[in-house]
Design goal:
Layout: E1 8-25, E2 28-42, E3 45-51, H1 64-81, H2 90-93, H3 101-119, H4 123-127, E4 133-135, E5 137-140, H5 146-158, E6 163-167, H6 174-184, E7 190-193, H7 203-207, E8 217-218, H8 226-235, E9 240-242, H9 249-257, E10 263-266, H10 268-271, H11 274-287, E11 291-293, H12 300-310, E12 333-334, E13 343-345, E14 355-356, H13 358-364, E15 365-370
Parallel strand pairs: 5-6, 6-7, 7-8, 8-9, 9-10, 10-11
Antiparallel strand pairs: 1-2, 1-15, 2-3, 4-13, 12-14
Helix pairs in contact: 5-6, 9-11
């Protein structure tokens, strides 16, 4: 791919997909997802990008309606003023707009997909990844009862997932974690994710998780509490992993330097795109910090792209790239991601390696805005 290659964003589209089951975290319950897609074109070749912003600004400040608005009002005018834009230039062109990383990431992703498809190259090959299969982890939400939780975990274990992640919150932590550890035994990797639900006052309580031999505890405290995370890391035997805190290369470097982050969850949408995600990966490799690729309930578009990114050697822990069927009865791509023996195949097709199922896409589309 040449640096001079450049395409245009030609369409925005919103789709709505029901989840196969409610997914509850410490910040709410999801039963469906509204998802904003961007389509780019380069010399007649199409590329797709997926915005991972949620329906509401609960995981982060970004949300679907806000992303659509800022793309229309601010981001697209800046890109259009440049004419054809290369994916590698998107971050610089849009730097004058503060924040809105997920909206920016969707546009960069669409352009990058088009550029790679135009040259017939896969994303994994473009990154220099050598792995053809990667371990698949599954994220398990908060359930109404322990029995419901254990039933769900049992199914995921039977499906062969290489790692179990439990969502936790105050009042739903030690007992469910103990029950799941007893169910799956000592050898299957287990980790927990609090999505900022605790405070520094809970550090003693969080240290009690050490009894369960966890891979990590993910984002237990608010995203801006670096000192609190450093204090927890100093006292807990369980490695502290940051998610919501990591929004850039600088934030990752600072968190590592301050001892607030012993593991990094890299989510491309949260950091502004896959090219920045690659730079954070390289930082982690340089600092000797384990990293893994997080998930945001993506469709097959984002799921395929995440798999290509996670094929890099620096992703040393299983990520949240589960089978499409974990969340969607029908995905919007042909040949959705599947899990075999705890692993998924890294896409090798051009671009991010998916093919959109246009019939399904049209069925789930709620609006389309064609820009050219």
């Amino acid at each position: 791919m040449t640096a001079a290659a450049g395409g245009r964003i030609v369409e925005l589209r919103e789709i709505s997909l029901p989840l196969v089951a409610p997914f509850r975290t410490s910040f709410g319950v999801q039963t469906s997802r509204r998802i904003l897609l961007a389509r780019a074109e380069l010399d007649g070749v199409q590329g797709w990008g997926e915005c991972v912003a949620g329906d509401e600004p609960t995981y982060s400040a970004e949300f679907v309606d806000g992303a659509a608005l800022v793309i229309r009002a601010e981001l697209l005018p800046r890109l259009s003023a440049q004419g054809a834009v290369a994916a590698g230039s998107v971050s610089d062109v849009l730097a004058g707009v503060k924040g809105h990383a997920m909206a920016k990431a969707a546009l960069e992703m669409a352009l990058l997909d088009a550029e790679l498809r135009a040259t017939g190259r896969s994303f994994a090959a473009h990154l220099g990844a050598t792995r053809t299969r990667i371990p698949s982890g599954v994220s398990v939400g908060i359930h109404p009862t322990l029995d419901d939780l254990l039933g769900a975990v049992s199914r995921y274990v039977a499906e062969g997932y290489a790692r179990i992640k439990l969502k936790i919150e105050p009042g739903w932590d030690l007992e469910p974690v103990a029950a799941v550890r007893a169910l799956i035994g000592p050898d299957l990797p287990l980790q927990v994710d609090a999505n900022t639900a605790y405070t520094r006052d809970d550090i003693d309580h969080l240290c009690r998780l050490d009894a369960f031999d966890l891979l990590l505890v993910e984002q237990p405290l608010p995203e801006d509490d670096l000192l609190g995370h450093a204090q927890l890391a100093a006292r807990s035997a369980t490695p502290v992993c940051l998610d919501e805190t990591i929004v850039s290369v600088t934030s990752a470097a600072d968190a590592i330097e301050l001892g607030a982050c012993e593991v990094v969850n890299i989510k491309p949408g949260r950091v502004g795109g896959y090219l920045t995600a690659r730079r954070i990966h390289d930082l982690c490799v340089d600092r000797g910090v384990p990293a893994w690729c997080g998930g945001m309930l993506e469709t097959g578009i984002g799921r395929a792209a995440n798999a290509g990114l996670a094929a890099l050697d620096g992703f040393t822990l299983p990520g949240d790239i589960s089978a499409s069927a974990r969340f969607w009865e029908r995905d919007i791509v042909v040949g959705p991601i599947t899990v075999t023996d705890g692993q998924i195949a890294v896409p090798t097709g051009p671009g991010f390696g998916f093919e959109v199922d246009l019939d399904v896409l049209d069925e789930v589309t709620t609006w389309v805005e064609r820009l050219t």
